Amino acid sequence: MKKVLITGANKSIGFETARQLLQQGYYVYLGSRSIERGNLAVQKLKDEGLINVELIQLDVNNSASVDTARIELGKKTDVLDILINNAGINGGMPQNALNATIEQLQNVLNTNLYGVVRVTQAFIDLLRKSENPRIVNVSSSGCSLTLHSDPTWKYYDHKSAVYAPSKAAMNMYTIALAYELKNDHFKVNAVCPGFVATDFNGHRGTGTAQEAGTRIVKYATIDDDGPTGKFFSEEYNPETGECPW
């Protein structure tokens, strides 16, 4: 049974991703900063008959928490097949370029970029033991430099001087990571789940958590001839899925 770690999986898109992977026969380690909320999420899945799931307390903002999570997971398994870096924050509004504070930027980067780096580096040894390791970094088409430079893009006027830069930086990390792991059977991609109505964005959106989970699961489970080092947004590009950087 292949094993998956998902950060920020106690709710919304992360939770739905966990549910779908469980339904496909994977064993899921549900990462949650809060033990209480994480346990509630695990119990909800088990109540649905999805029993191959357990909580891993994990705060991606905190190096000590990540290290402890690695130790705890190492007691449960010798190998990790999939890592989904899902935990993220938007940083609050407004996010104007001239008014955004350094503190706002630091807080968001600490989760959306540094958190991905912390977790990836901490668990890479377990991933290397998988025959077909996969890493998905949950991104957003809203961080595309190309799209945000195109006045004809439907979200052109929705600029963000904090969240978008954090995800754009994470995308660059994804490219570098995929390159470093390209000869080790890894598939590493950035995936936009779509504009989904969750508490992350004040429940505004055009998609569902189920659709988002399906998109993430697709790239978390791609076969050996699948892509690596790419950026996907099937909401933006339903034909090929590929999104411009």
TrEMBL record:
Signal peptide: none annotated. The keyword Oxidoreductase applies. One of its GO terms (molecular function) is oxidoreductase activity, acting on the CH-OH group of donors, NAD or NADP as acceptor. One of its GO terms (cellular component) is membrane. SUPFAM superfamilies: NAD(P)-binding Rossmann-fold domains. Keywords: NADP, Oxidoreductase. It comes from the Bacteria. Belongs to the short-chain dehydrogenases/reductases (SDR) family. This is Short chain dehydrogenase. It comes from Zunongwangia profunda (strain DSM 18752 / CCTCC AB 206139 / SM-A87).
